[in-house]
Design a protein that fits this description.
With 409 residues, this protein is of the alpha/beta class. The chain folds into two domains: 37-262, Rossmann fold (3-Layer(aba) Sandwich), CATH 3.40.50; 310-407, no CATH class. The chain has helices spanning 4-31, 53-58, 75-81, 103-114, 128-134, 219-222, 228-235, 265-268, 272-292, 310-324, 327-346, 355-365, 369-384, 390-407, and strands at residues 69-71, 90-95, 118-122, 137-139, 144-145, 150-157, 162-168, 171-172, 176-179, 185-190, 196-203, 206-211, 244-248. The chain has a nine-stranded mixed β-sheet, covered by helices on one side. Strands 4-9 form a two-stranded antiparallel ribbon. Helix 10 (310-324) packs antiparallel against helix 11, helix 11 (327-346) runs parallel beside helix 14 and helix 13 packs antiparallel against helix 14. It is elongated, with a radius of gyration of 38 Å. The two termini are 48 Å apart.
Length: 409
């Protein structure tokens, strides 16, 4: 390719332009100090206003074991593979805008809770499957970006008693529960309309907490004044000495209902920097294929493998001694070559030809023990005899040849 250097220069220039554009875009976004939370991600590594980085970093301090595990798979798959979830005293925290699950996910969640565990779900819109199984009804109201500071979440508990409120000038969630099962459900909080939006459901041996205000987990809310106490209040209901604490980073990336397992590409394509990296990798791969697909040298012919000359050597020696009719010397040479063959090929000591030796040779050569035992008996017979008949020599030759053939397949 005579023009190959020119193509390479053009490609490098194009790559530099792309990198400059990407870095400039990221720098502009980083310098923006916007508090826009209309596109909240609730992602544990997102440091923007609508991310949950602050909440995720504070969680370990609220539990005795001081560790939180991140989950990036559907609940059904995680529950199937993680044996710890099948024991008691685990906490699973899920924060998302809209909860999209499958029937298998709901079944796994209920099985998890029934074993004596706790599930905390903060969302704006629950999945209809969850409403059906837990027998509650929600009413969707307006979620808006407030410019004024006002009360957005109130916590109440008659058993303590407790009545506290928290405010900030950010996203306000208006959704609430219009009907619950009073036999198993306690109301723990209200929204800015004084409608119940935080409940606890007793399910067999465990508890399910449902909060229709995921914005209480965002960075903007928690870092406003003393709002970190709202997170402490919510987490105070959970098991303090939980064996394991899980943070879900899977469902907060789902934006549509799915019929089965979700695509993990949605998580990878979620952020601009990741998308740029993936597309850049695709472009580089295509360019590599275009420029490097042509062969630079002639095809090297296959070199035939070196053949095993053991059988040819035995035949040549055998013919020489057989012509002289020296059966004993011929058989003796065949035995020496046979023992050397075993030592060099299978690394076995041939000084003692006992049952252990026979078993080891049979295992390594894949020749039945009966055949090896018969062959070694002939070796022993020949070593004791001075005169070997032609028939015995032919029989011994055939057996030893058969051994070589079987071990060289």
């Amino acid at each position: 390719m005579k023009n190959k250097p020119l193509y390479i220069v053009l490609f490098v220039l194009l790559l530099l332009v792309v990198l400059v554009m990407v870095s400039g875009n990221l720098a502009n976004k980083k310098n923006e100090q916007s508090t826009d939370m209309t596109q909240s991600s609730f992602y544990s590594k997102d440091k923007k206003a609508g991310g949950a980085y602050a909440a995720f970093k504070m969680l370990p301090q609220l539990f005795m074991r001081n560790s939180v595990q991140v989950v990036t798979k559907p609940f059904a798959r995680t529950f199937d593979k993680d044996s710890e979830l099948k024991f008691r005293n685990n906490v699973y925290i899920l924060v998302a805008d809209k909860l999209f699950t499958t029937e298998s996910d709901i079944d796994a969640m209920l099985d998890y809770v029934s074993r004596g565990n706790e599930l905390f779900i903060a969302m704006n819109t629950p999945d209809p499957l969850l409403e059906k199984h837990l027998k509650f009804v929600t009413v969707e109201s307006n979620n808006m970006q407030s410019k004024k500071e006002g009360i957005v979440q109130r916590y109440v508990d008659e058993t303590i008693p407790m009545d506290t409120s928290f405010s900030y000038p950010g996203m306000v969630s208006g959704n609430y529960f219009s009907a619950v099962d009073s036999n198993t459900t306690n109301i723990l909080g209200y929204n800015y309309k004084n409608k119940p939006n935080f409940i606890r459901i007793e399910y067999r041996s465990g508890f399910i907490y449902l909060l229709l205000n995921p914005y209480t987990f965002t960075n903007y809310f928690l870092l406003h004044k003393q709002n970190v106490k709202a997170l402490e209040t919510q987490m105070s209901y959970l098991i303090n000495d939980a064996g394991n604490v899980y943070w879900d980073d899977f469902y907060n990336s789902q934006h549509s209902a799915q019929s089965g397992d979700f695509s993990e590409w949605q998580v990878l394509m979620r952020y601009a920097s990741m998308r740029w990296a993936l597309w850049l990798a695709v472009v580089l791969t295509l360019l590599y294929v275009v420029f490097e697909s042509k062969r630079r040298q002639r095809i090297i012919p296959d070199k035939p493998p070196v053949t095993n000359t053991s059988l040819e050597f035995v035949d040549a020696i055998g013919q020489l001694y057989y012509q002289q009719h020296n059966n004993y010397n011929l058989a003796h040479k065949m035995i020496i070559h046979f023992m050397e063959y075993i030592r060099s090929r299978y690394y076995l000591n041939t000084n003692v030809l006992n049952d252990e030796f026979i078993a080891s040779l049979a295992r390594k050569s894949l020749v039945p023990e009966g055949e090896i035992r018969a062959l070694l008996q002939m070796v022993h017979h020949i070593q004791l005899e001075e005169n070997i008949s032609d028939d015995d020599l032919k029989d011994f030759y055939n057996r030893i040849q058969q051994f070589y053939i079987n071990t060289n397949k």
